[in-house]
Amino acid sequence: MLTINSIKNGIVIDHIKSGQGIKIFNYLGLDKADYSVALIMNVESNKLGRKDIIKIENNLELDFTVLGFLDPNITIDKIQNETIIGKVKLRLPDKVENVVNCNNPRCITSIERNIQHTFYLVDEKTGEYRCKYCDEIYKVSDIQIK
């Protein structure tokens, strides 16, 4: 049995869809961290069947918008003295800026380099976003993060 100790002070990113933990780990740049970090993959879960967990022994400022965009089912536990002092439940954000690029070659963002890539949520159930400039629709599951 694998044992991962609790953290004293920091955060736990929990309920990550199985297999997606590495994407969040890399996005947050945790491979370059100089503090303790644990990425636990394919953990059994009553709620999800299987899930990933990231434990970070540090109090990071996280962009909840981006994390909610990557996986809206994530919960973030804030830990102090080995006790959960706060819990944040994420959801799909209404607007996402400069997290993903529009791949439509006719979109103004493919020509003009200084324009922010902006997407608006159009369907929360299917996770569909629409480009602000060209109206191209993207599903969260199909989008590649910058």
From TrEMBL:
Annotated GO MF terms: metal ion binding; transferase activity
Keywords per UniProt: Metal-binding, Pyrimidine biosynthesis, Transferase, Zinc
Domain Aspartate carbamoyltransferase regulatory subunit C-terminal, residue spans: 95-143
Gene Ontology cellular-component annotations: aspartate carbamoyltransferase complex
Residues covered by the Aspartate carbamoyltransferase regulatory subunit N-terminal domain: 2-90
Gene3D superfamilies assigned to the protein according to its UniProt record, in alphabetical order: Aspartate carbamoyltransferase regulatory subunit, C-terminal domain, Aspartate carbamoyltransferase regulatory subunit, N-terminal domain
GO biological process, one term: pyrimidine nucleotide biosynthetic process
Superkingdom per UniProt: Bacteria
Signal peptide span: none
Name used for this protein in its record: Aspartate carbamoyltransferase regulatory chain
Gene designation per UniProt: pyrI
